[in-house]
Amino acid sequence: MTERKFRPVLHALTANPGNEMMRYAQGKDDIITLGQGEGDAPTPDFICEATMRALKDGRTFYGPVLGSNELRQSLSEYYERIYNLDIPSSRVFVTASGSTAMHLSLAALVDKGDEVIAVTPIWKNLLGAVELTQATTKQVALDYVDNEWVLDLDKLFAAINEKTKVLLIVTPSNPTGWTASRDELRAILDFTRERGIWVLSDEVYGRLVYEGVRAPSFLDVAKDDDLLLVVNSFSKSWAMTGWRLGWIVGPHEAEAKIRDVALYNKLCPPTFTQYGAIAALEEGEEFLKQQLKLWHKNRDLVVKRFKKMGNVHMSYPKSTFYAFFKVDGQDDCIEMTKRLIDEAGVLLSPGSAFGEEAKGYIRLCFAVSTERLNEALDRIEAVICK
Ligand SMILES: Cc1ncc(COP(=O)(O)O)c(C=O)c1O
């Protein structure tokens, strides 16, 4: 009876196996959780203190729809400092998380009947966000060739058709760590520009790189007025997952449109946390560097230990804090993930959460202390090398 009163789209939502596994592990004793995309370090003090000062100063009121001028300006300066790009603050729209940035972008771009091409494996929530808009999704998978994830541009371009409104791409990628090269970004943008298709690029992991200071961005190769929205977040780089703050960079003409959507959605991003975000941008490089040092060590450890186990295959992730691996002879990743919860006490994320072609893989987030990671790997080894 009540079922019928909800929108049909909610009945049609596809399952979220990652979330199901989290529920499966809930309440079980002594579980090492490497299934979620976050580190175990709390937000650093300098960010919390800036936020507490803002709270004490009474920054507790509604603010501008697209974020405070100070934070938008600070983001503009961040792009100049870190990316060597001239992005005026009027092209930066602050949102209440990267997830919200994605929802607002999709709400501004797609309707029922439109098609979104998504490069997979991809974070399931982004596919869910598209499902809510009632647009359809066509998945184009990266190929796994010689232990590397690669994007076949011809395959991608062949999938684009007259219904395609948006190309959704995550670079660096959760879960594979695949990172588009500048040449690939340029080729994609040349192709979409010619056909009037939007590129919606999620660059939330853009700073989680183990060579250089940042991954190539679509903004490197874009013209100011390209049909391009780049989604980003404070969550991963500065240990701010619980803060719910992100941003979008778009062309000038997007400012009024995103403002309209944001106004009727959140009204504005939270006010006082934006002061913490400014501190993260202006003083957060050393913290990020220290985090990356640990994750670099952890990445090498995971790769080395999986290799030694002999029956595990994975690419060498150049970016992000994920290992996306496959165990020989184990094609049912849900069953394998459940077994690792039950027998190893380790919660990971099943590959089927990341797209049709990712079945059989499992994702491990290595952004924890090296001791905890080693303990988790010992436990995993005891199960998969039995
Ligand atoms: C690709 C991608 N985009 C966005 C997010 C979420 O960002 P936020 O915490 O700002 O919502 C995640 C979180 O795992 C992610 O993997």
Which descriptor suits the 3D outline?
globular
Tell me the structural class: alpha/beta
List how many beta strands DSSP finds.
15
Tell me the count of domains: 2
Give the low-confidence spans.
none
* β-strand amount: 15-25%
- CATH architecture label name of the largest domain: 3-Layer(aba) Sandwich
* Strand and helix order: HHEHHEHEHEEEHEHEHEEHHHEEHEEEH
Largest sheet: 7 strands, mixed
Please provide a written account of the structure:
This protein has 386 residues and is α/β, with parallel strands linked by helices. The chain has 2 domains: 2-43 and 286-384, Aspartate Aminotransferase, domain 1; 45-284, Type I PLP-dependent aspartate aminotransferase-like (Major domain) (Aspartate Aminotransferase, domain 2), CATH 3.40.640. Helix content is 42%, strand content 17%. It is built from 14 helices and 15 strands. The protein has helices spanning 8-12, 17-25, 45-56, 69-83, 98-109, 124-133, 153-159, 182-195, 218-221, 254-263, 273-283, 285-309, 333-344, 370-384; strands at 32-33, 92-95, 115-120, 136-141, 143-145, 148-150, 164-170, 198-202, 228-233, 246-249, 312-314, 322-327, 346-347, 349-350, 361-365. Strands 2-10-9-8-7-3-4 form a 7-stranded mixed β-sheet, with helices on both faces. Strands 11-12-15-14 form a 4-stranded antiparallel β-sheet. Strands 1-13 form a two-stranded parallel sheet. Strand 7, helix 8 and strand 8 (198-202) form a beta-alpha-beta unit. 47% of the residues are buried. The model has no long low-confidence stretch (mean pLDDT 96).
